[in-house]
Amino acid sequence: QVQLVESGGALVQPGGSLRLSCAASGISFSIYAMGWYRQAPGKQRELVATITSGGSAMYADSSVKGRFTISRDNAKNTVYLQMNSLKPEDTAVYYCYAGYAGRVVVYWGQGTQVTVSS
User: Fold this and answer.
1) pLDDT tens-digit profile of 76-100?
2) Is 87 left (phi over 0), alpha (psi -120 to 50) or beta?
3) 58, 69 in Cβ contact below 8 A?
4) What residues contact residue 114 under an 8 Å CB cut-off, 6+ apart?
5) Cβ–Cβ under 8 Å, residues 115 and 11
6) What's the rounded Cα separation, in Å, for the pair 52 and 44?
7) Could you tell me whether strands 78-83 and 68-73 are parallel, antiparallel, or unpaired per DSSP bridges?
8) pLDDT tens, 28-76?
9) In angstroms, rounded to a whole number, what is the distance separating the alpha carbons of residues 83 and 26?
């Protein structure tokens, strides 16, 4: 059974930091590209960042470049999203995914809520 389990979402003040984690099981983690989407209330789900099986990181949203860092630990079957200098507009449910290049999503996590508010 494939599972992607996110954790680390929370309520944080503007300017704060969070690290999201996504632990995968039931898949050959190292062969997949991994990444994060987010969905704010009333908006479409949007790609935030991807890390390839080889460890190359790409950030789809220019607003997060320089603030967010995606990384992976193949030994732990886990992908991370370090989020710094958080802004209220980063408020969303963040979803982990496993897939392939070209934004092909094969598996989704259940999502974790990030709320940035004072």
Assistant:
1) 999 999 999 999 999 999 999 999 8
2) beta
3) no
4) 9, 10, 12, 18, 20, 38, 83, 86, 90, 91, 92, 93, 94
5) yes
6) 23
7) antiparallel
8) 999 999 999 999 999 999 999 999 999 999 999 889 999 999 999 999 9
9) 27
Q: How far apart are the C-alpha atoms of 50 and 99, rounded to whole Å?
A: 10
Interatomic CA distance for residues 66 and 109, integer angstroms: 25
In the chain, count H helices and then E strands.
Answer: 0, 11
Determine the Cα–Cα distance for residues 76 and 66; give it in Å rounded to an integer: 25
Residues 82, 71 contacting (CB under 8 angstroms): yes
Dihedral Cα 43, 45, 49, 53, nearest 10 deg: 180
Tokens 């449910």 belong to which residue? Answer: 93
- Which one-letter amino acid corresponds to residue 101? A
Quickly tell me which residue has 């300017």 as its tokens. 15
CA neighbor of 23 nearest in space, from 69, 76, 71: 76
